[in-house]
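Retro notes (design track)

What went well: tokenization of the new backbones is finally stable.
What didn't: we kept losing track of which sequence belonged to which structure.
Fix going forward: every design gets posted as structure first, then sequence, in one message. First example under the new rule, 202 residues:
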């Protein structure tokens, strides 16, 4: 199984998910550094498009913001012959940020051009382009057979966003599990979910 894997905003190419895919499932995994061109969803989607245009993959998998990047790449490369697996994808990214910040904070960010982001491990400056790209690319429609696996207990990206996407496309199937955003419980399910996805017609 040739896999292109997109990690989340604070993840990395050697995280638990791609490591499990390589070491336990034996998949041939390409996992780029998603921030190599920048932090916004447009640049992270471009990271995937370059890999897709260079090589053939059976399955393109993305987690959280990486899942949103994969969905965008799928919408832009509908003629490519891969399937898509999204793990707690960050659809609605723009709305998530605007709901967490006050109007003043958003105004200050836009005026200054940058805003400091401090996460679990990251301490970076996000350009305003992060919000502009999110405004354009928060709700892509996947162009391939797609399975979403999302946890009902996710308090970072609510499962309702995946329900909305699955409900709007015949290509998208949603698998709901009892898990939070880190999606550790999905690892033992990956082989079966991927097998079913690859077997789906046409």
């Amino acid at each position: 199984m040739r896999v292109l894997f997109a990690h989340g905003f604070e993840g990395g190419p050697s995280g638990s998910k791609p490591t499990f895919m390589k070491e336990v499932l034996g998949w041939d995994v390409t996992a780029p550094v998603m921030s190599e061109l920048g932090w916004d969803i447009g640049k992270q989607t471009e990271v995937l498009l370059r890999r897709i245009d260079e090589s053939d993959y059976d399955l393109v998998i993305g987690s959280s913001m990486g899942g949103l990047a994969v969905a965008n790449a799928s919408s832009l490369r509908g003629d490519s012959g891969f399937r898509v697996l999204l793990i707690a994808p960050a659809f609605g990214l723009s709305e998530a940020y605007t709901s967490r910040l006050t109007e003043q904070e958003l105004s200050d960010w836009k005026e200054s051009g940058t805003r400091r982001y401090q996460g679990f491990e990251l301490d970076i400056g996000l350009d305003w382009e992060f919000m502009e790209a999110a405004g354009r690319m928060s709700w892509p429609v996947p162009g391939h057979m797609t399975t979403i696996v999302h946890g009902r207990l996710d308090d970072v990206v609510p499962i309702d966003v995946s329900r909305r996407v699955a409900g709007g496309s015949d290509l998208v199937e949603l698998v709901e599990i009892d898990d939070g955003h880190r999606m550790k419980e999905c690892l033992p399910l990956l082989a079966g979910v991927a097998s079913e996805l690859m077997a789906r017609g046409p």
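Added context from the reviewer: The radius of gyration is 16 Å.
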